[in-house]
Amino acid sequence: MRLAVVDLGSNSFRLVVFTAGEGWWKRTDEIYEPVRLGEGQPVNGELQPEPMRRALSTLELFAHFARGVGMDEEREVDAVATSAIRSASNQAEFLSQVAATSGVRVRVLSDEEEARYGYLAAVNSSSLRDGAVLDLGGGSLQLVEVRDRGAERLKSWPLGAVRMTERFFADGGPASRKALKGLRKHVCTALEESGWDGVGGRLVGLGGTVRNLASAAQHALDLPTFGVQGFTITREVLDALVEQLAAVPAAERAKAVPGIKAGRADLILAGAATIQAVLEVGEFSGLEVTEAGLREGVFFERYLAPEGLFDDVRRQSVWNLLRQYEGEHPVHVRHVAELALTMFDDLAAAGLHAGDPEERELLWAAGLLHDIGTSIDYDDHHKHSRYLILNAGLPGWSYREIALVAQIAKYHRKGSPSLDYLAPLGVKGDRERVARCATILRVAEQLERSRDQLVRAAHVDVTNGSVELRLEGGADLSLARWAAQRETELFERVFSKPLTVTAA
Questions:
Q1: Has residue 407 got a pLDDT over 90?
Q2: From residue 262, how far is each of 92, 231, 266, 410 by CA, in Å?
Q3: First and final C-alpha spacing in the chain
Q4: Whole-structure pTM value
């Protein structure tokens, strides 16, 4: 399955190609242009000539691309328009020009449809069950209340970053406190009048403004970066960013505030202040970020029809990544994961660790993904696995959890397990979590070193202060026993007890 989603936004136009197979999907191409179609457009007024010219030129490029890669324009291209085109008084004239110059057929989304696509993107890329989804574009702001993963209320306001910039910060200079206060009051009033005060729960945000603010927040906190999927912007960090952004002219913000993109520097302050107001009125503690957006929502509607939802986002994201890169030995990694989880449970039952369910899930994910790096090269494949895990994002997992899974997978082969450069993302006890899980995974990997599943099971007994690992299988297990014994020194260092390996 292939689908090219063309998102005609008020600020930017984007074409994203999604490719899907049995049990997996991924983005395989993308074209982005900062068209600024909503520039100079009054609310419910006309699209202006120069933005229209830029838009038509970009759509010609998109149409040429789709034809060049052999996409069926009726079945495999879905072009959707949002706030600027939806509210334009000259919408019919513009769409007629689009059809004449590029042949692209545009589907103009209603407020509710746009909000629903944002909702589908968020709930299929996060573990959100109760709270709300925020989608901030150039022309509009959408909020969707979520209860038990279902969409309860969908609402859209003309409060996008382009509109708010032109209304409150049109001169491009440093922003006054009066202007900032005026913008926030304007947004708060609009939300309160619609009954959006005191929603509570978690808030998941999407859109280019949200992603760029997350990048700036990571720089402000001096954190290691590997995308922004699963990252949370706290209210305190957002407030500090607004102060920094407001203090300098729009043209200098990209240089003055690390992480801010030059192409968004003029709009980012209005977007950040709008989000401040949403956090205040909705009583949210912060904003969780997803890299998914309206394009993913359109794709998920078709890929996951008729329900449109993954049953378990966290598990699905791990399986999705595995199925893209599992290579020639799909049974091997599943068996390693099973052996590792059995040892984890036995060691917990013996009192050697607490048996934390979160830690067990980290081990499960790393167990399945530890060998995906072989799709790049066998040499240093443990490092390649870490790279793929970090940069794939693992939707549904927090930023910290992604880092832990990556580190556990990285140390399945050799080295002394640690958090390395990702240490700033950890919390108390994470160094020990990585060490325990990586050690268990390394022993499990040695038991399956021959990739033949001869070790059907491995169980742990703790007696007289030492740990016995008993291997069960229907053949000669001397190779597996020899391989596992190579890790006894690491095991004793991590669990403070000697390890012996026996085979029936």
A1: yes
A2: 33, 22, 8, 35
A3: 48
A4: 0.94
